[in-house]
Amino acid sequence: MARNAAAPDPRGGARKREDEKEPLRGVRGKATEATPGTLDRLIHERMRLGIVSALAANESLTFNELKGLLQTTDGNLSVHARKLEDAGYISCTKSFEGRMPKTAYALTVPGRKAFERYLDHMEALIRAARDA
Question: Which fold has domain 39-131?
Answer without folding.
Answer: Arc Repressor Mutant, subunit A (1.10.10)
